[in-house]
Amino acid sequence: MSQHEEEYKPKKLGKIILLAAIVITALFFISQIIFLLISGFSSNKDDVAFFAGNHYSIIREDDTYRLYDKKTQNVILDNVNGYYSNNAVYSYIKNEEEYVVINEQEEEYIIREIDPSNSQEKELFEKFTPLSK
Asked: Which domain does 101 fall in, by range?
């Protein structure tokens, strides 16, 4: 080998390593920018409580709470103001006019109107965890 060939190989290897470092650094910064953009434009949804093995959840969006079916992404109950769960058989979520009874084992729910004259409902609602805005 001539002396020129020996000097050429280390210079070429150095340029390849430098180029690889620049590409990796650029990819890193591009991924960070994408992450910041995605997190900056994400919605203001916060999960507050989960029911029936995370099938249903109360989500805070801006200044209101909603009960969602997480599998279908449908709103079950708007303007939720309280909930109660004994973590065994049934969970209860309410707003001003109606409440939802979730069967924790069957992962099914029923929507019922609030009856102001029903003393059993009143006793149940006293156990609820209130949600403040």
From this structure: 45-130
